[in-house]
Every structure is written in C-alpha cells, then in structure tokens.
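Open question from group meeting: does this chain pack into something compact, or does most of it stay loose? Before anyone orders reagents, we agreed to write out a predicted structure and look at it together. Recording both the input and the output here so the notebook holds the full record.
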Amino acid sequence: RMRHVRETNANVEPVFLAFRHNPVLLELIERVAATEPVYDFVAPIDGFSHKFWVISDAADKATITEAFAKMDALYIADGHHRSAAAARVGAEKAAGPDAESSFYMAVCFPAEQLTILDYNRVVKDLNGLSSEEFLRRLAENFEVEDRGTEIWHPAHAHQFSLYLDGRWYSLDAKAGTFDPNDPIGVLDVDISSRLILQDILEIGDLRSSQRIDFVGGLRGLGELKRRVDSGEMRAALALFPVSMEQVMNIADTGNIMPPKATWFEPKLRSGLVIHSLD
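Structure tokens returned:
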C-alpha cells in the first residue's frame, strides 16, 4: 500500500470511516441525494450501481464542517492499511501540515446506514481428526445439532453454522465459554478462534496460516458449500455478523477488532475519486 501511494503520488481508494448517529448530516445527505447526481452508472464487472454528488453550496459546506468538528471520533471500518500507508508517505514527504500529502482521502458513512456481513471461514483439514472425533470435540463447548443438507444460517450471536461431509450443523456456545463483559471475548470471531480454530484445529495465526481461508458474506453460504464439496476444503464455519455498535464500542474502549471479523457493505469503487498528493 505504501509503495503504491508513493509511486502513484495519490490516494486512489478512500479509507472507509463511520460516524455515530447525526441527524443534521442525515438530513443534509437525504436532501442532496434527492437531486441529480454528477455521476450515475452501473459498473459492468459486478453490476453495482454508483451515484456521486458534489456539494458546492457554501452553507452546506459550513454545516458539514461544523457537524464533524463536534464529533468525538470517526471509526475506521475498512482501510487500516491505507491509513498507515498514507501516514508513512506523509511523514516521508514532510511537507508540512497543510500539504496535500498530510491528508488522505476518506469516505464517511452514517453508522446506521452500514451493513456488516458475516465473514466466514473454510479450513483445509481437521488437524488429523475424523469427522466424528471433530464433532465430539466441538460438543465440549457447543451444543451441536444436525440441521440436514439444506444451507443453514446462524440465527443469532454465539451460534455458528458448520458444513461438514455434506451436512449442516448448528453450534451454540455453552454458558461459561465466553465473558459477556469482555468486549473482545464476547465476539463470535473470538469465540470461534479460541474454541475451534486454535484449541481443536491448532490454527494459530489467522493472518499467515495456509490451512484456512476467509469468505466474505456477500458471496453467501453457497460459496462455503461449493468449496467444501469440491474437495478444496474440508469444512466451513459461518458466523453471525458483528454489529456496528460492537465495532464502535471496541474502539471506544481502546481495543482492536480481531482479524477477519467484519465484511462491510457498501464499498466504493477504487479510482472513482482520486486525491493527488501534489
């Protein structure tokens, strides 16, 4: 990311930020979005629609500036590496606080308008266990129930969906397997990492292990089934999505989200807007 910013001398993809409920900005966004956009197109690759407005009215600009000045924080939903890369390049240039290189491009969404999809896991092996042994180990910390051959989604937090040998199972975390007062430990991504991926499958570092892969919820649980049925993967685990409130509370308490915990929608296309560092 840093080399890309350095070589292009530009930010070509915005950092994805969120802000807590703000009625002033929501009213302004709704009013502006009712007007004719500057750009309005459907991307041919993925079929997603994009509309883009430019706010040029001085009073609206002042309203936006004042609203953001009153905010305690903005929350990075997606783009931590982009933020770090921009900061490093800005430090390299050392052009002063008012230089373009001291800023990076961001898009700010009202938190209530964001959708966090599930971010699911597929694993290549069961760490030498048979399917029966794996299910018995799961039953130590989860209530395991066979849900049949039809795709089955987790219905609530602390419930997981396992696909193994052509069948779907629900896994409900038992009482005492997590601390409801721990902002990290209460997350399903942490529960599944501790009790399944680490304790049973002995997959330590989710970022570097070659035995695990991650599938964004936009692709659906059918993609999990396909990858297991093809023989590429041995089993799949689907998680209930994290809430935006959880993400913001974790940041407010000085904690960091576990890896591969969130899949945010919508996403803006790279290159739609470019911020030159000149």
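Observations to bring back to the group:
The chain has a mean pLDDT of 93.
The CA atoms of residues 187 and 242 lie 7 Å apart.
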